[in-house]
Design goal:
Number of helices: 4
Largest sheet: none
Radius of gyration: 25 Å
Strand content: under 5%
Structural class: mainly alpha
Distance between the termini: 64 Å
C-alpha cells in the first residue's frame, strides 16, 4: 500500500475511535468538535499560505514552470486553482468576524463586553430576571 492510503486509513480509524469514545462518555462529547476545529484551522492556514506563496513560486516568464501544475497549462488556471481557496477562506473569515463584531454590539452601538451593567442583572447574566421563588431555586440568591 502507498503511504497516502495508509495515512487516510489511519485518519478515518482514529476518527471512528474518537466518535465512539465521545458517544460512550459524556465528558468527551466536545472532543470531535475540538479536533475538527483544530484540523480545519491547520488546513485553512495551509491553504492560505499556499495561495499566497503561489504568487512568488511561479516564474511568470517561463510557462514550463506551471504547465504541469493543477489548473495548468494557463497561468490564470493555476492561480484559480491554488489561490481561490485562500480567497474563499479569507472572505469567510472576514464575514464571520464582521457578524461576530455586530453581534457583540448592543442596540446602542457600543460594544458590550459582559462587564458592567450591560444587561439585566449583574454583568449581563440575566440573574435579575429570575422570578422563581427561593424555595424552588435551592437556596439564596
Amino acid at each position: 500500500m502507498r503511504t497516502g492510503a495508509v495515512t487516510v486509513i489511519a485518519l478515518f480509524s482514529a476518527a471512528a475511535v474518537i466518535t465512539a469514545a465521545a458517544a460512550a462518555r459524556p465528558r468527551w462529547r466536545r472532543l470531535p468538535k475540538v479536533i475538527g476545529l483544530a484540523a480545519g484551522g491547520v488546513l485553512a492556514a495551509f491553504l492560505v499560505g499556499e495561495g499566497a506563496a503561489e504568487f512568488f513560486i511561479v516564474h511568470y516568464g517561463d510557462p514550463a514552470s506551471y504547465r504541469n501544475a493543477w489548473g495548468g497549462p494557463s497561468l490564470a488556471g493555476v492561480f484559480a486553482v491554488h489561490s481561490s481557496p485562500a480567497v474563499a477562506i479569507l472572505l469567510g473569515a472576514g464575514g464571520y468576524l464582521v457578524r461576530w463584531h455586530r453581534a457583540r454590539r448592543g442596540p446602542s452601538g457600543r460594544v458590550t463586553s459582559g462587564s458592567g451593567n450591560s444587561g439585566p442583572g449583574p454583568s449581563g447574566t440575566g440573574a435579575a430576571c429570575d422570578v422563581r421563588p427561593l424555595a424552588r431555586t435551592g437556596g439564596h440568591r
